[in-house]
Model the fold of this input.
Amino acid sequence: MSELFASFKLGQVELSNRVVVSPMCQYSADDGVAGDWHMHHLVQYGYSGAGLITLEATGVERRGRITHGCLGLYSDACETALACIIRSSRRFAGPARFGIQLAHAGRKASAHLPWKGGGPLGPEDDPWQTVAPSAVPFAEGWPAPGALNEDGIERTLNAFVDAAKRAARAGFDAVEIHAAHGYLLHEFLSPISNRRTDSWGGSLENRMRFPLAVVSSVRAALPSGMAVGVRITGTDWTEGGWGIDDAVVFARELKVLGADYVCVSSGGITHPLQVPQTQGYNVPMAARIRKETGMATQVVGMILTPSQAEEIIKSGQADMVCLARCFLDDPRWVWHAAEELNARVHYPPQYERARRSVWPGAGILRPFKDRE
Ligand SMILES: Cc1cc2nc3c(=O)[nH]c(=O)nc-3n(C[C@H](O)[C@H](O)[C@H](O)COP(=O)(O)O)c2cc1C
Done:
């Protein structure tokens, strides 16, 4: 029996299996509002067979978007568009559940789209003033962010809460707070970017204060039937940065506050990106966090094959696997994994005739040497 395809309870949200479509920015929104591309994107992954689809980093305020094309959830127009897309996606998705990643890009905001170079916007590109815990630029050539004052911190916290309420009204099953990849909440956590000397900086306890306040307020604002997760960083991969011991403490605190899961990622606070592109590079960190905190754990990063994913779950290194580029490469990854692991997943009835059990072509395309 495949353990990858066993159901899992994320808080009160029932997942049909342990495969998660990782949040992936599409840079295709207009003032934060999702459009045709998002409809296509979410409907497609909705019927991919994955247990959970977590929609991309979504700015909780306009200045919290990475680029002019990033999704937002700060206006009625943003909320209405997402509600419409979720409604459509659910019609074809069978048992799949939908989450949304709420984010604030902090000092990495006001950037070009990746396919236009990804660097900071210039004066002619309608840039905006970025914010961060401290006025330390992301990298050479990036503008200095404004250090958030008490009012700014409160405003940002409220923006997370308001966006979470919008996500609930739009029909999502889960909210994931983005506290990784060098964005605002990670900037508070990491000593690389947080140089404050007030109660929001310095000790680990102080650096965790703002992200924990966000998670606690979001949890309190959402119905108990919705799951709340946090994407965290296992390590900054850099001397003097955030490390796995910190991540264990953070995850423990998140659990106390009622978070339902963490998704363990890493890197992104420094430039250029220093992440080892080896298979399952975050898995040992996820395993340690899961073991030492008892927190439901997703792991992301170079999880490629069904057997690798099955082994991660079976060996108890994580509860769920989260895949990004595999899904861009092959939106049918879950269907093929189910074939290989001898499990059954949802197909929309329109596509049922491609099931291996009824289509001999699948066996020719993907032969199993040890079975057929
Ligand atoms: C196109 C693209 C967009 C991404 N956008 C996000 C995002 O919105 N939020 C996030 O946390 N990670 C984002 N990531 C990172 C992925 O979620 C994932 O953590 C990373 O790609 C490693 O997983 P993989 O090896 O399965 O691709 C993005 C990755 C890609 C390829």
User: Anything to note?
Assistant: Residues 150-170 form the longest helix (21 residues). The mean pLDDT is 97. The pocket of flavin mononucleotide is lined by residues 22-25, 56-57, 101, 178, 181, 231, 265, 300-303, 323-326 (CB under 6 Å).
